[in-house]
Design goal:
Blueprint lengths: L2 H7 L2 E12 L2 E13 L5 E4 L8 E7 L5 E10 L4 E6 L1 H6 L20 E6 L7 E12 L18 E4 L11 E3 L5 E8 L7 E5 H14 L5 E2 L2 E4 L16 E6 L4 H5 L6 E5 L2 E2 L8 H9 L6 E8 L2 E8 L1 E2 L7 E4 L4 E5 L2 H6 L8 E6 L4 H5 L6 E5 L2 E2 L3 H13 L4 E7 L2 E7 L2
Antiparallel strand pairs: 1-2, 1-4, 2-3, 3-6, 4-5, 5-6, 7-8, 7-10, 8-9, 9-12, 10-11, 11-12, 13-20, 14-15, 15-16, 16-17, 16-18, 18-19, 21-22, 22-23, 23-24, 24-25, 24-26, 26-27
């Protein structure tokens, strides 16, 4: 191995995670392990969001010399399944610990057949290296696993490799022979023989820069789901490599408000032509829209039937359908804040309310008749605009137990439920 690769090995870490989930009316704690790679001399560590998410309550990093230090979450981006940590540098200095850091390579220069190495801590085994090749340098993969229910995989294609990626490898670097990080190993394919996928460094670098600067990645959204046009061009009287299909339009979204419809053909964004004949081409178009400033007005050139016209669409902030979660343990109730995306999906009037995601048998919420999937809209006639409202209601209930009135929407019908002491 050359010097660059040896330095890379000294930058790979094991990450031990303790996290909390709000399920079945209570808080549930779990532990897991993953991999990561140190990117800077001041201790920034890149890993997967499914390794270290917003649910993490304790993070520990084991360095190449087997010393363990704590870390904190700088930020995470479930859309690309990436997270950024920072090692406790005060502890590092106090204990005179040393570590190396790795450098990014250019994933855009990779080619099928190029030799790569997946480095990580599979099953907790320290600094394990597997060798393989790039099987596909621009693979489309519809990721249905998500990150704790959050959406992912919409804004990147993947590096496909036959270098073994096992449980625990997640978040570790995929590197070239000179030790440059050209991907972040993310998952293997269940039931397959050495079929693994990594997030390209071109994507990872953009996310790292955003998380370092802001702690979050802000993207724009207009409410269209795009589809590949392959084999459909003749139905729309299109030349090959022209435009992308608007597969669906989210009700109430900016695109719907502007008048776009499913089966429209998007030809250009702000005058820049777009091509989505194949699935691999769609993430670039989604990134083009997502990278616009929130609140910007986009000019979309759209073909509908024989007519072509421009639509003005004002972007809004991209949000997950998964809202903030909490467990009201004395009531035996787990809830999730209704998000704007969820409200549109369920055709709710607004984003007020919390969704019941779990009920503990025998506890007050269960006795009152609350069920998973119910939407609590009001408590004692006060709209539930945030989790603080329902937390305050439980605190008041604890201080002075009294019947509490819930206005609940279930299957588009509203009913009243009384939670009793």
């Amino acid at each position: 191995m050359n010097r660059g690769f040896n330095q890379l090995l000294d930058a790979v870490v094991r990450i031990d995670v303790r996290e909390v989930a709000f399920e079945a009316g209570s808080k549930r704690y779990s532990a897991s392990i993953g991999s990561g790679v140190i990117l800077t001399a001041d201790g920034l560590v890149l890993t997967n969001a499914h390794v270290a998410s917003n649910r993490a309550i304790e993070l520990n990093v084991t360095l190449a010399n087997q010393e363990r230090v704590s870390a904190k979450l700088v930020g995470w981006d479930h859309w690309t399944d990436l997270a950024l940590l920072r090692i406790d540098m005060a502890d590092v200095k106090k204990r005179s610990l040393k570590f190396a850091h790795a450098d990014f390579g250019d994933s855009k220069k990779l080619f099928p057949g190029e030799v790569v190495f997946a480095v990580g801590t599979p099953y907790g085994l320290s600094r394990t290296v597997t060798r393989g090749i790039i099987s596909n340098n621009n693979q489309y993969l519809e990721d249905l696993q998500g990150v704790n229910g959050y959406e992912t995989g919409l804004f990147n294609t993947w590096l496909q490799t036959d270098a073994a990626i096992n449980p625990g490898n997640s978040g570790g670097p995929l590197v070239t022979e000179d030790g440059k990080v050209i991907g972040i190993s993310t998952r293997g394919f269940n039931g397959a023989n050495n079929l693994g996928f990594a997030i390209p460094s071109a994507t990872a670098q953009r996310v790292v820069e955003g998380l370092v600067h802001d702690g979050v990645i802000t993207r724009s959204f207009i409410g269209v789901v795009l589809g590949a046009l392959q084999d459909l061009e003749s139905f729309y009287s299109l030349a090959l490599n022209t435009g992308v299909l608007i597969h669906s339009v989210e009700p109430g979204s900016p695109a719907a408000t502007a008048g776009l419809r499913a089966s429209d053909i998007l030809l250009a964004v702000n005058g820049a032509k777009v091509v989505g004949r194949f699935p691999e081409e769609i993430p670039d178009i989604q990134n083009l829209i997502a990278s616009q400033p929130v609140g910007a007005t986009l000019k979309l050139t759209v073909k509908r039937g024989a007519d072509t016209r421009d639509y003005s669409v004002v972007t809004e902030k991209l949000e997950s359908r998964v809202g903030e979660e909490w467990a009201l343990e004395k009531w035996g109730l787990s809830v999730r804040k209704v998000s704007r995306t969820y409200a549109r999906e369920k055709q709710l009037d607004d984003a007020n309310g919390v969704v019941v995601i779990g009920v503990q048998p025998g506890f007050p919420a269960d006795v009152a008749g609350l069920s998973r999937g119910d939407i609590i809209m009001k408590i004692n006639e006060q709209p539930v605009g945030s989790l603080d409202v329902i937390k305050a209601a439980q605190s008041a209930f604890d201080a002075k137990p009294a019947p509490t009135l819930f206005e609940v929407q279930r299957s588009r019908r509203v009913s009243l439920v009384i939670l009793k002491p």
